[in-house]
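step 3/5: co-fold with magnesium ion
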Amino acid sequence: MTVTTGGPLIVLDGVNKWFGPLHVLKDVNLSIERGEVVVVIGPSGSGKSTLCRAINRLEPINSGTIVFDGRPLPAEGRALAQLRSEVGMVFQSFNLFAHKTILENVTIGPVKVRKEKPAVVRERAMQLLDRVGIASQAEKYPAQLSGGQQQRAAIARALAMQPKAMLFDEPTSALDPEMVGEVLDVMTSLAREGMTMVVVTHEMGFARHAANRVIFMADGQLVEDAPPTEFFENPRSDRAKDFLSKIL
Ligand code: ADP
Ligand code: MG
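step 4/5: write tokens
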């Protein structure tokens, strides 16, 4: 990972987002340091996905600013493509290209978007597939893999762009229970290696063990922002207490 500036990697300042009359992000202020792992939790509809999507500008915001690596998010063009390659995103649904092999899924971004040499990318892709434990599946198609393997391939694909940060939006929610662990293990090792991560998840074990901070969102607002032990042992707001009582 190349560090181009000091200071926090991601800064949201007074961010507001509406979908028509619906105010989904309400004056969100958030600063994420390099290497930090921030877990975002909260009820369905509270704005967690919108927050993630705003950070790589899949959703434009209506007011406020978002700064990534020292620069305001670009609105369009090459700079936007560059931003998207620097902020890897992993979704609930694996979103792999069905008609490409696993290896091709991982190499296509660096080759097509970044114009890197195919041989170089291929070597890096194989190393990444090995790291997520599916090197032996490289020549298969997504449908031939289990859900957990597909999600690990999606993580390898995002990492192939050598991102400065990774956003995970409920990466294990669509998986059969027995496959959740293998995906969380990959994410935990990534966290330990110093990747800056924003992770929306209901996996409280991951939040406790891998997060530096837990953010609790409700109704478009950041209600709590605390280290995991503090958040889980002593949630301050009634909304967080209520949420935790339902999921723990
Ligand atoms: P979460 O991820 O916490 O469940 P979301 O960020 O997906 O919440 O959604 C926040 C609110 O915005 C919800 O009320 C949702 O219905 C609404 N919403 C999300 N995306 C859109 C959209 N593209 N158009 C209109 N409303 C949307
Ligand atoms: Mg969501």
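step 5/5: annotate
Residues 177-192 form the longest helix (16 residues).
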